[in-house]
Specification:
Layout: E1 9-17, E2 23-32, E3 37-41, H1 48-55, E4 63-68, E5 71-72, H2 78-83, E6 85-89, H3 100-104, H4 106-110, H5 115-128, H6 133-136, H7 146-158, E7 164-168, H8 176-193, E8 196-200, H9 204-210, E9 213-218, E10 222-227, H10 229-234, H11 239-245, H12 249-253, E11 269-271, H13 276-286, E12 290-294, E13 300-305, H14 315-318, E14 325-327, H15 332-341, E15 347-350, E16 357-361, H16 363-388
Helix pairs in contact: 5-7
């Protein structure tokens, strides 16, 4: 994101005070970059949902200015504004008397699209959210699972191709397994459509996984920190943020810290045609229990264990063909999950495009990588504080 580019959404000095005197949002300044997911998090009653609703004027601001794609939305017809913003809520709100394609086409219908165009758009969006149009197009909402209804809700929000999506805890009522799949699917869809998304959640883990940036609110609608997930976890701006993200924030940080291929551990390397005696010698020289087996193009074939290398023969006779492995663009959390699942105590890292072996991640390298990442952010924050002073 170009730091000089105009944000898609800008809130300038926005406050919201309800008739009973309750302050929901307090003097909020917030820029939301075009094409990014910004997650609003905080305890109940902190103003995160109100902030989201201010964007499409489901809630009217008491003071301040809200700019959407260069236009002050407080001066436009709110009905027209809402047709330009997709809206996804926790309980979806599908119309029970309408079939799936009709639900998806709600806004196109209001915009006067003809039936053929509406049905074609519904089919296109069903494909996008991973549901077969031939199977789901004519179903009723009651025939869908909770996860399927949420997918339809996302498809409906995208129907008129709005530049902005507002999502209010859309996955919170779904069971953990379905929720994980929906989050994965949501990121896949966002990679294709590149919308600007304001996403309200009470779950810091969800915010870390989905958000390009996280806005942490405290009671009274006060913004405590607005940063990338790694910064929120690694360098909380206030004691409130540190308490909210939890003492285990270092573990959460694994989800937003990538594998540094320059810091990978190395195991001895052998080939299928090498003798068992050569493999034993390579392991003895390195002091390692395991060696990785590569093909002539340095692609990972498997691994061998020194306890299974007695006698004569070749590495090909003893190779274990399913080594634990992750792609180099995976997070440290994914790598740690694989390490914990396998008895070897390490996971191989391979290049995504070629499958070429790059090294291994071990518990020691995981700890070192996470520590360096935290220290790096702390140093950056220290320099920034010095410049501000």
């Amino acid at each position: 994101m170009d730091a000089t580019a105009e944000p898609m959404i800008r809130l300038e000095g926005v406050s919201k005070r309800f008739p009973d005197g309750t302050v929901a949002v307090q003097q909020l300044d917030l820029d939301i970059p075009r094409g990014e997911i910004v997650c609003l998090v905080g305890p109940s009653g902190c103003g995160k949902t109100t902030t989201m609703k201010l964007v499409n004027r489901l809630v009217e601001p008491t003071t301040g200015r809200i700019v959407l794609d260069g236009e002050d939305v407080t001066r436009v017809d709110p009905v027209q504004l809402r047709r330009r913003t997709g809206y996804v809520i926790q309980q979806v709100g599908l119309f029970p008397h309408q079939r799936v394609w009709e639900n998806i086409a709600t806004v196109p219908t209001l915009l006067g699209w003809d039936k053929a165009r509406r049905k074609a758009r519904a089919d296109e969006l069903l494909e996008l959210v991973g549901l077969d149009p031939a199977v789901y197009r004519d179903r009723w909402p009651a025939q869908l699972s909770g996860g399927q209804r949420q997918r339809i809700g996302v498809a409906r929000a995208l129907a008129a191709d709005p530049p902005v999506l507002l999502m209010d805890e859309p996955f919170s009522a779904i069971d953990p397994i379905a929720r994980d799949r929906l989050q994965t699917e949501f990121l896949r869809v966002q990679e294709k459509v590149g919308k600007t998304i304001v996403f309200v959640t009470h779950d810091i883990d969800e915010a870390v996984r989905l958000g390009d940036r996280i806005a942490v609110f405290r009671q009274g609608g006060v913004l405590e920190q607005y940063d990338a997930p790694a910064t929120v976890l690694g360098a909380p701006a206030t004691p409130f943020v540190a308490d909210f993200v939890g003492a285990d924030r270092a573990l959460r940080r694994l989800a937003v810290t990538g594998i540094d291929t320059a810091e990978l551990d190395k195991l001895p390397v052998v080939a299928l045609e090498d003798s068992l005696a050569d493999a034993r010698a390579a392991l003895a020289a390195d002091g390692s229990r395991y060696a990785v087996v590569l093909d002539p193009d340095e692609r990972l074939v498997g691994f061998v264990d020194r306890d299974r290398l007695d006698g004569e023969g070749t590495v090909g006779d003893r190779v274990q063909r399913q080594p634990p492995a992750v792609l180099a663009d995976a997070s440290l959390k994914v790598a740690m999950g694989e390490v914990l699942q396998h008895d070897t105590g390490w996971v191989a890292v391979v290049e995504p495009a070629t499958g070429r072996y790059l090294g291994v991640v071990s518990p020691q390298s995981l700890h070192g990588a996470l520590r360096r990442s935290i220290e790096h952010d702390a140093a950056l924050d220290g320099r920034a504080a010095g410049l501000q002073g």
